[in-house]
Each structure stands twice: as C-alpha cells, then as structure tokens.
Amino acid sequence: MKQTCLLILGMHRSGTSALAGTLNLLDVELGSELMKGASGDNDRGFYENIHLYNINEKLLKQIDSSWDDVFFNESKLNVLDDTTELESMLRKEFQHSQLFTIKDPRLTYLFPLYKKALTNMGVDIKVIIPHRNPLEVSNSLKKRNQFNQKKGLLLWAYHFLLAEKHTRALPRVFYSFDELIKSPQNLIKLIDKKLMLNLNLKYNSKKSLIADFLVPDLKHHNISIDNMSEKIPKLIWNIMSLMPKLNEVESVAKLDELRQQLFDYQNLFYNDSILKVQEFDEQMNKKEKEFDEQMNKK
Asked: Looking at residues 236-258, what average pLDDT do you find?
C-alpha cells in the first residue's frame, strides 16, 4: 500500500505543535528523534523531527534565508535542485511508516523541495494548514523572539498565503488553533472527511489521552477578534475574513490579490539601508508610519 505523508504547514505559534502531538497520540509516525520542549516555550514538546529540522536549517542557510525572513522569495529555491539528502533522510526515518507527518514552520518556505522529494519517493502528500489570530501570533513572537508587531504580522501573513498557494492542487484541510483546543474530535472528523485517513476510530480509543494533552493553557496570548479590524492593517484583516470559508470555498482570485499586496508591502522595506543593518526591527519601527499608510489604502 502506498505511503502517505501529512505535511503540517503553518506559522510558528499557530498550534502546529499541538496538532503534531495529537496526531502522534493517534499513532501517526513522527520519526526517530524529536526536538524537546523548552521551559516556558512548548513545555510538552515541539514534535519536530530533529534530523529534518537540521536539513531544513541547512537548506535555508544555503540561500541566505531563515524561517523569519520577511524578504523571502520563492525564486531563492531555484538553486536548490538536488533533493538527494532530503530523500535519503525521509527514507531512513519513514521507510516502514504507512502514515507519517512532518511538522516544521520552515516547511512553508521549503515546500517545493519536499513536494519534489516525496513525489520522487512515490509518497502521497496531504496537507494540514493551521491558522491563528495574527495578533496572538505576533504577541507570542514578541515575547519569545522580541519581534515588533509589524514583523510578526508580516511573517504570519506571508507564511499563510504562501502555504495556501503551494498546496492548491493537493488534498488539504485548514483549521484554527481554537478549534483544536475546543473541539479536537470535530477537527479529526474533518481531517478524515477531507483527507480520508480514518483517524476517528483511533480518536475514540485515545480520547482521554488527547484531552489530557490539549489542555486550555496550551494556548496563550488569547485575544478576541471583536473590533480587531481597528487594531491591525486592513490587509491582515482581509486575510482573516476569508479563513472561516477556506474548507468550503476556494477564494483563489482574492487570495492571489492579497498575496500580491503583501509582496508590494514587502518591497516597501526591501532596500539597501535595511539590508546593511543588523537589527531589522529598528528599521521596521522607523518606517512604521509609511507602512501603515500604504496598507490601509487597500
């Protein structure tokens, strides 16, 4: 029987670890060695395969990029044609796994390479894309990484829109972090319906373990979406407004328009004065007024 890989594509702090941990409780393979949690930061674990994480970091460094690269461009991947090392590690980790999942926020940028490698291996690819209130993500990144709000919002938008674009031709499910915490079985049923994985039977036998894992305090920095349109740039709000219907309606034209707007704003900051300094956040603060004016015109 053909192998299936579930790729979790999502921004940091969006519930990707909680989902990967839940899938692991449902006997979905994650590999031989996982990244350990850190005190005050995903105490229960990141559920990232450490061997693939190391390869992902290596690949991004080869193109002078990183997971928090707000100037990332898909053309950077053109120099990374060789997937031999990636395929070798995937075989080593999952050659005996009928169903396995890979979770790493870096997958959003590296998705074309993973798609090529898994296709070469004859593995079916299915995708789960989490999303979360962008202000919650931004606040969490501010606490963990000392990013200012604008950088956090840019990263959130870019990761989401790029993940959506990359996966249009594949079976996929969108979900919110809140949905996972409040109604995990409903999400598992949706995954079964969209991706045909038959996980709900296992869920019924692991329900108590999953309930103990998905405790409410797993999700921090909770912010109501009420009146958020006045607190965030219009572009971000427009992306958010599409999310409730992503599993039912394909809004490709609108998403393409929003992604192009994001690239326009990205170019607003892409200049020599920024590229030559070490602290990007300082330059972001200096251009904050111009950025807001441009974004709110849309």
From this structure: 82
